[in-house]
Design a protein that fits this description.
There is one protein chain. Helix content is 36%, strand content 16%. By secondary structure, it is an alpha/beta fold. It folds into 2 domains: 198 residues, Rossmann fold (3-Layer(aba) Sandwich), CATH 3.40.50; 209 residues, N-(1-d-carboxylethyl)-l-norvaline Dehydrogenase, domain 2 (Orthogonal Bundle), CATH 1.10.1040. The protein has an 8-stranded mixed sheet with strand order 5-2-1-6-7-8-11-12, with helices on both faces. The protein is globular.
């Protein structure tokens, strides 16, 4: 009898044998941390694919230096410099050789980048393609693009959060790693069951962080992090209930360390609405969503001892050392600084965060008045229409990651393998909006 061929043999033998070709997609802080740390290893070949390749081209000649910020007063900062084999703005230059693709771009850029990446992956061997962090509808977006290109050998994965908090990036040169997460939470969007263990093994080696394998991608989609945290805090700082008078601020305020009671109020209520959505989805589909913890508990699981005081959500954010010194992303205008709607806190966390949550809420008939309130404020500043008269029928819905824009008609379409137990459950989960044109 012929021996069974292990399709993931290269990944299972690495790092003891061979080199892993890792392509990092993006040009931001996380891309720089990963490239600098991995490029210093002898068992990894690092390439970068980015539309901003020209601005980070120095990485291919001098490498990227990562400053690892000390986590305690007793420790000292450390530095590591990693080599990048190639930086390109053309997928065909770096994707065909890639074994493991890590996309770090914001959610609103992922569809376009995935459409450029998938046609160039090697079709003769398994290629692992994933995102950090995983929220934003990557699973249904990437599956649709792979299907359109008749690509079946790509293993799609995601982790719930970014593995490191990072800041102060000098493009193509250096970045500061503020600290690692306690655990990485991994879910799969495609591939055989054995692929999850392989992905976990590789991620542990690449990041040095333990990986927890999750049974449902929906647990990542519903993660109570950026999609509700950033808009809620901004709403509390600059929304109609805030003390902001609309005039430019003299400086950028600390974002997390000075989070207000008002911001915490809206965030906690959005968090409760996410929990209601989670419970409804779990009840209908049977999806295991235990790891979709309330936000305060989530911070405890992800950051552990880095959070000095976890008694309340506000204190957990204020005392999280990984959040220390991070300023509110504002744009400079005459006289100071004001709200920047072009920042990812709006461009990513609204159409690929709040809108997705609202769309899922519709599919399970959960009301979300606080998410609605913040969404309406955000879309007004952005000049977009998503939520109109209480329904997601706005003219910009096709620019979002909402599952109904990718063929989902009921909640069961968003959780592969799930199905209603009765016709009444199916009827109760249907959406009352027009069918997607995509």
């Amino acid at each position: 009898m012929a021996a069974t061929v292990d399709p993931f043999a290269k990944f299972n033998k690495w790092p003891a044998e061979g080199k892993l070709n890792v392509c990092i997609v993006g040009a931001g802080n996380l891309c720089h941390v990963l490239a600098g740390q991995l490029g210093a290893r002898s068992d990894v070949i690092v390439t970068i694919y980015s539309r901003k390749a020209a601005s980070i081209q120095a990485a291919a000649t001098t490498g990227i230096t990562v400053k690892q910020q000390a986590r305690t007063k007793e420790e000292k900062d450390t530095f590591i410099t990693g080599r990048v084999a190639r930086v390109s703005d053309r997928a065909q230059d770096v994707i065909p050789d890639a074994d493991f693709i890590i996309m770090t771009t914001p959610s609103h850029a992922r569809k376009a980048m995935t459409e450029l990446i998938v046609p160039h992956v090697d079709r003769k061997r398994p290629v692992f393609f994933g995102v950090m962090p995983g929220m934003g509808g990557f699973d249904w977006i990437a599956r649709q693009i792979c299907k359109k290109n008749n690509v079946s050998n790509v293993v799609l994965w995601a982790i719930k959060d970014v593995p490191f908090m990072s800041a102060w990036c000098t493009p193509g040169v250096s970045v500061t790693n503020l600290g690692p997460k306690t655990n990485l939470y991994l879910a799969m969007a495609s591939g055989p069951a054995s692929a999850q263990a392989v992905t976990a093994k590789v991620l542990v080696s690449l990041t040095g962080i333990p990986v927890v394998q999750m049974p449902s991608f929906m647990a990542i989609t519903l993660t109570p992090g950026n999609p509700i945290m950033h808009p809620s805090i901004m709403y509390g700082m600059f929304g109609p209930h805030s003390q902001w008078d609309g005039k430019p601020l003299p400086e950028k305020p600390l974002f997390y360390e000075n989070v207000s009671e008002l911001s915490s109020y809206f965030l906690s209520r959005c968090d409760a609405e996410v929990q209601a959505i989670k419970n409804a989805i779990s009840k209908l589909t049977g999806a295991e969503l235990t790891a979709v913890w309330p936000l305060r508990e989530n911070l405890k699981h992800v950051y552990g001892p880095i959070v000095a005081d976890n008694r309340t959500l506000m204190l957990a954010m204020r005392t999280n050392r990984a959040y220390a010194t991070i300023r509110t992303p504002l744009k400079q205008v005459p006289g100071g600084f004001t709200v920047d709607v072009d920042h990812r806190f709006f461009q990513e966390d609204v159409p690929f965060g709040l809108v997705i949550l609202r769309d899922l809420a519709d599919l399970v008939n959960v009301k979300t008045p606080y998410i609605d309130e913040i969404l309406l404020w955000c879309q007004g500043l952005m000049g977009k229409e998503y939520l109109v008269n209480g329904k997601l029928t706005g003219r910009h819905m096709n620019e979002t990651g909402a599952p109904t824009q990718y063929g989902a008609k009921t909640i069961y379409d968003t959780v592969p393998g799930s199905k209603p137990k009765s016709s009444s459950e199916l009827k109760g989960s249907k959406k009352t909006q027009p069918k997607s044109k995509l």
